[in-house]
Design brief:
The radius of gyration is 18 Å and the shape is globular. It starts with a strand and ends in a 7-residue tail after the last strand. It has a seven-stranded parallel beta sheet with strand order 3-2-1-4-5-6-7, sandwiched between helices. With 253 residues, it is α/β, with parallel strands linked by helices. The longest helix is centred in the middle third of the chain and has 29 residues. It has one domain: Rossmann fold (3-Layer(aba) Sandwich). The model has no long low-confidence stretch (mean pLDDT 94). 47% of the residues lie in helices and 15% in strands. It contains nine helices and seven strands. Helix 1 links the parallel strand 1 and strand 2.
Length: 253
């Protein structure tokens, strides 16, 4: 049984990945900052193979402690999915500096910390899969998302470097770059985008988002989870250092 750790796993895309992993009989550990939501996510999987830890992924000692505990219990950590994230939309000149720094801490520094502390365990077992949840905003810009774009561009860079450093150890490292997924993270930013563009929030999808998406729809979380499952499989061992896009055609233009 493979052991998987998913950060930011109590809701949205993270929870969808956990459910998909649980159905395939992985031992899955959720890391999140909300104990109530962790408990709900664990219960929804209806299997004893899912458990959760409350964890601020920016706190290195806490991350190291949890990874060590898991490894001592199972003698392996096979998969790390760095998924924790947040969104904030504002023009650069009015973007709060503290918010910018915090978003980079959560979405770039935290994946670095988790990767740093999981690699020794993966190297001992000569196998590992690290999946960094990036975004199409790690490949293209979007007005108002200075921190999110900066973090996701940096995360793809971290992915490539880590892939090169681990290629000889049976470890693959890839970034998954979703477009607009039907999650609270996306839904909650629509009003901020509307305010920044001076339009009705109910028109954001039709007038701002869908014109950029040839399929004219939001992705479902399960679609992204399926891509993650493919990258976890042993048969995907030749894929490393890549930014894998799933975006309804957004970046094909």
């Amino acid at each position: 049984m493979k052991v998987v750790i998913v950060t930011g796993a109590a809701g949205g895309l993270g929870a969808a990945m956990v459910r998909s992993l649980a159905r395939l009989d992985f031992q899955v550990f959720l890391l999140d900052i909300d104990q109530e939501k962790i408990d709900e996510a664990v219960a929804s999987c209806r299997t004893k193979n899912v458990a959760g830890f409350i964890c601020d992924v920016t706190e290195e000692k806490r991350v190291e402690e949890i990874f060590s505990k898991i490894y001592r219990c199972y003698n392996r950590i096979d998969v790390l999915i760095n998924n924790a994230g947040l969104q904030y939309v504002s023009p650069v000149e009015s973007f709060p500096t503290a918010k910018f720094r915090y978003m980079l801490e959560v979405m770039l520094t935290a994946p670095f910390i988790a990767t740093k502390h999981v690699l020794p365990y993966m190297k001992q077992n000569h196998f590992g899969r690290i999946i960094n949840m990036a975004s199409i905003n790690g490949l293209v810009g979007f007005s108002g998302k200075a921190a999110y774009n900066s973090a996701k561009h940096g995360l793809i860079g971290l992915t490539k470097v880590t892939a090169l450093e681990t290629a000889a150890f049976g470890i693959t490292v890839n970034a998954v770059c979703p477009g607009y997924v039907d999650t609270d993270l996306v839904r909650n930013q629509l009003s901020a985008i509307a305010a920044s563009r001076g339009i009705d929030p109910e028109k954001v999808l039709a007038e701002i988002i869908y014109p950029l998406v040839p399929q004219k729809r939001l992705l479902q979380p399960e679609e992204v989870a399926n891509m993650v499952l493919y990258l976890i499989d042993e048969l995907s061992g030749g894929i490393t250092g890549q930014a894998m896009v799933i975006d309804g055609g957004y970046t094909a233009q």
